[in-house]
Give the backbone structure.
Amino acid sequence: MQNATLHQLKVFEAVARHNSFTRAAEELFLTQPTVSMQVKQLSKTVGMPLFEQVGKRLYLTEAGRELFTTCQDVFDRLSKFEIAIANIKGLKQGKLRLAVITTAKYVIPRILGAFCQRYPGIDISLTVTNHQYVLDGLASNENDLYIVSQPPEDMDVEIHPFMENPLVVLAPRNHPLVGQKQISLERIAEEPFIMREPGSGTRKAVQKLFDAHGLPLKVRLDLGSNEAIKQAIAGGMGISVLSKHTLALEGLTNQLTILDVEEFPIERYWYVVYPSGKQLSVIAKEFFQYLLSEGKAVAEATALQKLL
Ligand code: PGA
């Protein structure tokens, strides 16, 4: 067994526990051929088959049952070891990996700032990207915690709402619609529109609203950045819909304003999400609690909240 790897044992344990290659592959975010290959190599190392297929059912062989019990012992010992190490280190050091959608970048760094003052020894990795890429990272278990506006429906995840994330219609200050009340969606659909890129959650929400009313938008340009869109609005290229948080730092400048449009703001939330069953590190757990208990208060102290 010296040649067996811990990874192979993990894969085998998941297949044995679920009695299924498919379910094990899902749990471990692996493909089914990878799972089969790992189990095959492990059987070779053991020198005996570990599973047998009778009809459609999968059974552990006697060698498989022995190995399953051994794996449970090994993993139990390892998780006790991890807890012991975490306790020794406490929250003094370690790494926190976060992936957040672009609108959350206006708030999360401030919350991280306050959190890091409390735990100065920890390293942070913060990935800021659009909705689709955050979900891809979640599916491949790349980070500890994820912040999204639309939690995935096809993945087994823990979801906790964390803060409002309203979408508003932004226009240049000198736009003819400024000052009008309850502008209709039909009227908005006549304006040249600047849209976020495909894969963006903002784009999805905007499209959903206008599609529901059967109103095609006159998209003049797609841009992959909230900041670039703000510049394009100020430059007179059109109007757009963005999260109110994108105005966090500068507030409403003398160049941009929020239009009063029916059905707006689109009320949305940010959610903290992580795969169900994921063993969060001590630091990730602490940050998660911090986010839910104090994150909002930290964000409220920012310029943005005076706007909301
Ligand atoms: P996006 O997500 O960066 O993918 O547009 C933002 C949001 O959904 O708030």
About this structure: The radius of gyration is 25 Å.
